[in-house]
Amino acid sequence: MKKLLTAAVLSAALATPVLADTTKVGFIYIGPVGDFGWTAGHDRARQELQDHFGDAVETNIVENVDYGADAERVMTQMALSGTDVIFAASFGYGPDVNAVAGRFPNVHFQHATGYIQEHDNISLYDARFYEGRAVLGHIAGKMTETNTIGYIASYPIPAVISGINSAYLHAKAVNPDVNFRIIWTYSWFDPALEADAAETLIEQGADVIMQHTDSTAAVRVAEDAGVMAFGQASDMVEFGPTAHLSAIVDRWAPYYISRIQAVKDGTWEAQNSWMGFADGVIEMAPWNDRIPAELQQEADALIAAIAAGEYHPFTGPLNRQDGTPWLADGEVAEDGDLASMNFYVEGITQELPN
Amino acid sequence: MIRLEKRKEPSKFWRIANPFLAVVLTMLAGGVMFAMLGKDPIVAIRLIFFDPIFSETFGSYSRPQLLIKSAPLILIAVGLAIGFKANVWNIGAEGQYIIGALFGAGVALAFFPAPGAHIFPLMVLAGALGGFLWAMIPAILKTRFNTNEILVSLLLVYVAERILAAMALGLMRNPDIAGFPGSRDLRRYEAAHNAELFAGTGIHWGVVAALIAVIFAYAMMTRHMLGFHIQLAGQAPRAARFGGVAPARLVVICLGIAGALAGLAGMFEVSGPGGQVRIEFASGYGFTAIIVAFLGRLNPFGIVLAGLLLGLTYIGGELGQMMLQLPGAAIQVFQGMLLFFLLALDFQTNYRLRLTKGVRA
């Protein structure tokens, strides 16, 4: 009996430090993990994180969490249940992340595409999607036959606006006659609305559809209509094997692993990271065979130039939509300007909603 | 064999018992579903229905949250139920909720940053007025041009959503944060903040308003002539007309009350738990309240229970996702089961199954 007790005490003593080493990581998602796009990208990274650390991390998710009171409640419950790190994977969680972070100073918050950082336990991280958009724009400008490119946009926030501008500039550079049609859905994930938007754009003559929304609806519609499309955040080729030219694929895993390692090492600090091709956080899905070999090489070269820092997608001379100068010849946009971008560049004919 | 027989009168017993039975059946069927997903059904049901209230870890936080989540549902559902009793089908409470929030927030932002005890009462009035006015569109179109209030009120939800987006992007946008839509955080503007009245209880003015609305609605429906007219118009429209009830007046009153209450709910939400005017401010309360109204048998006190129950499944559902890795969709199916079983069971309020011997009936 005594032996048993000793064994029990010993194993308990041995077990405790193992438990204490388990880092509990919570994820809140704006969409379902099955969106095959943005949220799927984050959940892919979560699984890689889990595989990397094994039993040393425990990951939990709550999907379809609305901005506002719901997000605040979910993150509070996570903090109360002993979560060490919370990844909030959408820009609109900003006020909620900051409210909860203020009450739980020992919990580390990682806010994707965030813009409010009022406490030193909040890190912001984002990807330079405009780098990928430049490549999409280049391909779209060369592939379009109707010279009309349809763009399904979600919220008029800097990340989306800079994406439209980047795609437009690079399409225009290879095809001066190109014309962008943009539809705003005010939602990240609404397959029905995105399908409607894609159909409308195709009716208006678009033969390439780009999207900054998270579902696969537009790719499917493009496949059925016999036009071309780009996926979003994940490789969506299986939803339109002919239509799907490529996609900007998000690879958050290396960053997530490094942040959790920092928590384990006790070196975690609040940061603001903006990562692009050079960091491997974004990459392009395999080129569709219908893209001519020459164009594939151009696209590869463009990626290499951006990754090497030899070329910046926003290099002057560039004017704003209203014709006022923005960047002088050879001048490169500053990160601060891009992170608060609220105007279209010259040549886009539609008005920005605001 | 089994024979179906229409009851002479709807069963009072089953009317009351069905919601409880529906909850039990939902737990059973939900348990089977959770087991099929490879989760322990007992743990799952406990997480959803009990832990938000009784858990030591979460209880002290999620009990007040239950009030915060349920109050707008109850406030909206009470108003809708009055209309439903009179066969006035206001499906667009979501739109009235949005416009009420915009009116309330509009008053707050117009006064920002001035202090003053008059600001919050003005916001309350504005919120009720906004919802009322938005509900008057289907009301007047129905009484004047005989349009269908179901369609008009529903479609006006989408119009309201677009106005909300335009406000968050334009007029009401916070000028201090570059490039991002959304208004100032009203929780940081003391004169406009719908704060907790007692710390740690979750009770804000919206909870108080919901309680008052429940009591007034009950008194009106059971004690007041108007309540009698509403019930009469719903159950026997011809008799009501002979009895001097003006149908047009009832339509206006029912939509007006529901709109004002939904507008209030929106106003209390935007100035409290919601915090700011955002494009995605509306999270379906106006639609969920329809379920709450029916789950509560269109009775104000029943609606309180139904609102709390639905609020519980939301909060518990999040715990279930977080603690047990239940998929979000499974939680939605679970919530859907609740309404499904209730509707299925309501069959026996009006019918009964009879076992008869032999084939001869």
From TrEMBL, chain A:
InterPro entries: ABC-Purine-Binding, PnrA-like
Pfam families: Bmp (PF02608)
Keyword Transferase appears in the UniProt entry: no
Gene Ontology CC, one term: plasma membrane
Source taxon at top rank: Bacteria
Signal peptide: 1-20
CDD domains attached to this UniProt entry: PBP1_BMP-like
Keywords: Signal, Sugar transport, Transport
Domain ABC transporter substrate-binding protein PnrA-like: from-to ranges: 23-299
Protein name per the record: Simple sugar transport system substrate-binding protein
Originating species: Roseinatronobacter thiooxidans
Automatic annotation (TrEMBL), chain B:
Topological category with respect to the lipid bilayer: Multi-pass membrane protein
Annotated keywords: Cell membrane, Membrane, Transmembrane, Transmembrane helix
InterPro entries: ABC_transp_permease
Keyword Transmembrane included in the entry's annotation: yes
GO annotations of cellular component type: plasma membrane
Signal peptide: none
Cellular compartments annotated: Cell membrane
Transmembrane spans: 20-37, 66-84, 96-113, 119-141, 150-172, 203-221, 242-265, 285-312, 324-345
Molecular function GO labels: transmembrane transporter activity
Keyword Transmembrane: yes
Pfam families referenced in this protein's UniProt entry, alphabetically: BPD_transp_2
Primary location: membrane
PANTHER family per UniProt: ABC TRANSPORTER, PERMEASE PROTEIN, GUANOSINE ABC TRANSPORTER PERMEASE PROTEIN NUPP
Descriptive protein name: Nucleoside ABC transporter membrane protein
High-level lineage: Bacteria, Pseudomonadati, Pseudomonadota, Alphaproteobacteria, Rhodobacterales
